[in-house]
Amino acid sequence: VVGNANLQRLTYRERAAILSKIAAVLTANREEYLRISLENSGSSAADAAIDIDGSIFTLKYFARLGAAMTADRFLLDGSFESLSKDGAFQSQHILFPLKGVAILINAFNFPAWGLWEKAAPALLSGVPVFVKPATATAWLTQQMVSDVIQADAVPPGSLSLLCGGARDLLDHVQSNDVVSFTGSAETAERIRSNASVLQHSTRINIEADSLNCSLLGPDVAAGTPEFDLFIREVVREMTVKAGQKCTAIRRVIVGSGVMPAVEEALAARLEKIMVGDPRNPAVRMGPLVNKAQQSLALAGIAALKSESRVVFGESPAFSAVDADPRVACFVQPTLLACDSPRSAGQVHRVEVFGPVATLLPYESSQEALELAAWGGGSLVGSIFTADDEFAARAMFEFAANHGRVLCVNEAIGQSQTGHGNVMPMCLHGGPGRAGAGEELGGLRALAFFHRRAVIQSAGNRIESLRTHGAEFRP
Ligand code: NAP
After folding, report:
1. Residues of the chain with pLDDT under 50
2. What are the two backbone dihedrals, phi and then psi, of residue 14, each rounded to the nearest 5 degrees?
């Protein structure tokens, strides 16, 4: 209540200035956050930077968007409509900031970005944040929240934190609250079916697991620029953050003719990735976050192997550099190949949250597009092709099942931001098993923290209302 009132007495611009202050606090403490990420998650500096710098980038982006907003207390949704022949009776849709709190429940793999990518649009909307980080990696979230509050960067009551089990947290939600969840499909189901959420029709957003795919177009042969870009991307997605990214490539769809060349190129690159303690400067890939995640990943590989062969990985000689296998949580990068993807089940069902991907061969472009859709709804799908006609067809087909579609050719080879990289100006969220959620996408993100109403009244009143708002143009 206190946080909501404190934030909603400010304008969007004033709240945008709060986001800038938060970004400044995080920037000032960046070194300490890198240390915590290493200690708590075993993240290399490069992996931790994705989480920490990604947070600062996202906060600054929403601060910029907010600084340009002319509305003070609410947003106009579209223009006015005349409801009578003489034009005296009119209507105007408006978007009003919610009067409750945004409960943000996050997964373990992005303790920083997971908070700030949700908190930035919430705070800009004027809705206070109550964050519940995953217990395994709550340290970084706790430190950041504590630093921001100690620096007086946010008004009292606008940022709260719960570390440890969620217990009865959701039993207290009301109709004006929102719950934004990132995590497994299993927990998502529990949140969706919570009695209070159901009773109060509390708005929820779910970002769940995802079997993201990358498709090599039928036109692409070994040695071409698109082939090389594809190989680089698949290896990057398998190894960045040791594959613990919701957007990582899990299914790699390639023509059966080019498959031997793909296997060879990927195995050659994976061979060169040094795995071990990220304190060693030669190391390119660190461990999974803990023993529990390591066991889950190994069990997932075993499940996939019931219908796939191992192209790379599971080497008896594998040992992580500077690490004691009894306590360390490493998983060797593992590339599998499922030669009969149409009759397989596991590869279209099991998400291994680690450095693991499976190759799926196709015989025709139609089959390639069908296999892509078998992910059951994903956060992101990428297409690598030099053929504009195939690109147009594939982008359109992918859009039905993916929240984000990345289509790469040589022209954007260097400038494209990557299959797994979530940009705050673009939508994050996917249909079906990915949770059917929507986050980010620039100002679109604000809609989740506002409620739409339509006002019907005399033309002069509608006109006066319009002078206090600004049209919402995401
Ligand atoms: P998880 O086990 O589902 O946990 C996610 C969060 O939910 C944690 O904070 C957890 O707290 C909390 N939680 C558990 N039970 C709860 C309950 N009954 N009520 C309220 N909160 C509850 O997921 P995870 O293992 O941390 O994350 C891995 C999964 O997240 C993967 O499947 C991955 O694909 C997915 N993910 C998706 C995205 C996306 O944007 N779509 C991003 C990252 C990860 P505790 O830690 O205390 O149990």
Report:
1. none
2. -65, -35
At 31 the three-state DSSP class reads helix
Burial state string for 169-182 with b = 16 or more CB within 10 A and e = fewer than 16: bbeebeeebbbbbb
Q: How far is the CA of 417 from the centre of ligand 1 (A)?
A: 26
What would the two tokens of residue 473 be? 């143009």
CB 120 within 8 A of CB 31: no
* Mutate which of 108, 135, 163, 329 for ligand 1 pocket (most atoms within 8 A of beta carbon): 108
In three-state secondary structure terms, 446 is: helix
Please report the pLDDT score of residue 323 as a whole number.
92
Distance 199 CA to ligand 1 centre (A): 23
Return d(Cα 192, Cα 180) in angstroms, integer: 11
φ, ψ for residue 431 (rounded to 5)? -75, 175
- Determine the Cα–Cα distance for residues 436 and 421; give it in Å rounded to an integer: 19
pTM: predicted TM-score of the whole model, two decimal places: 0.95
Q: What are the helix and strand counts (H, E) for the chain?
A: 14, 18
Residues in contact with ligand 1 (CB, 6 Å cut-off)? 105-110, 132-136, 165-166, 169-170, 182-184, 187, 190-191, 207-210, 246, 351, 353, 379
Instruction: Tell me, in angstroms, the distance from the centre of ligand 1 to residue 437's CA.
Output: 14
Encoded amino acid at 455, one letter = I
Q: How far apart are CA 312 and CA 306, in angstroms?
A: 16
The per-residue pLDDT for 175 is 96
pLDDT at 254: 98
Tell me how far the alpha carbon of residue 210 lies from the centroid of ligand 1, in angstroms.
13
For ligand 1, the distance from its centroid to the CA atom of residue 69, given in whole angstroms, is 34
CB contact at 8 A, 69 and 13: yes
Catalytic residues: 207, 246
- Which are the contacts of 168, defined by CB distance < 8 A and separation ≥ 6? none
Q: In what order do the strands lie in the sheet with 213-216?
A: 309-312, 334-337, 356-362, 251-255, 213-216, 378-384, 402-408
DSSP 42-102: ---HHHHHHHHHHHHHHHHHHHHHHHT---SS-EEEEEEEE-STTS-EEEEEEEEE-SS-E
Q: Whose CA is nearest to atom 8 of ligand 1?
A: 134
Atom 11 (ligand 1): residue with closest C-alpha? 134
Atom of ligand 1 nearest to the CA of 293: 25
> Which numbered atom of ligand 1 lies nearest the CA of 183?
30
Whether 343 and 234 have beta carbons less than 8 Å apart is answered as: no
pLDDT at res. 470: 76
Pocket probe mutation, ligand 1, options 182, 186, 193, 249, max atoms within 8 Å of Cβ: 182
Three-state secondary-structure class, residue 293: helix
